[in-house]
Design goal:
The protein is of the alpha/beta class. The protein contains eight helices and 13 strands.
Amino acid sequence: MKIAALSDIHGNFGALDAVLDDIRRQGADVIVNLGDIVSGPLYPAETVDRLIPLAFPTIKGNHERQLLAADLSRMRASDRFARGALRTGHLAWIEALPATLRLDGNVLLVHGTPQDDLTFFLETITPDGCRPATPDEVSLRAAGVDASLILCGHTHIARSVKLADGRLIVNPGSVGLQAYTDTEPFPHRIETGSPHARYAMVTSTPRGWETEFRQVEYDWNSAADRAAANGRPEWETALRSGYC
């Protein structure tokens, strides 16, 4: 089985289209979507319109959960923009998405960890910022999961970790946003260092699961211009450069 894993599109329609074109050239048995699909100052409705007929196995991220909340006044800017752009049918599609999903019994899709869509799986946030999680930390977050492959998102950092028992956890990185800052649980920044859209190909082989991380060019300047026009200069910088 060859799985194309996408995550954290964040309404970046141009990046999504470029990634889908690359997947068509590479070939895949299944494409999966790990959440945080629409939130951001770009193209939320167009992104959902593109994805619905493709019917990929798809889960909610924390942003899908957040933008379904009733109180718009308490939403942060990215969720509020997406919620205002989405129609009833879009919201119904998002509402129906599961938080986690099993694929062929041996593959688990999660956004953060199996227990929590806000916890980083392969990274750890401390008062000093973001660092790679230790093997013990990753093992604890994977406790009780019997899948041989766990696909996660949320951090926007493309990375894989193989546990001592052979289980593989893969974060494909972000399709749509290559840098951001946050204040929870401590102030930290994520920077990938280039504006390329990212995803992963994960293939079952006689030797086990093997991962190829892919970076795809797209018109990131147009995406950055859209973010600037919608009043989000921090997104403009991140989309153009991969830095905050």
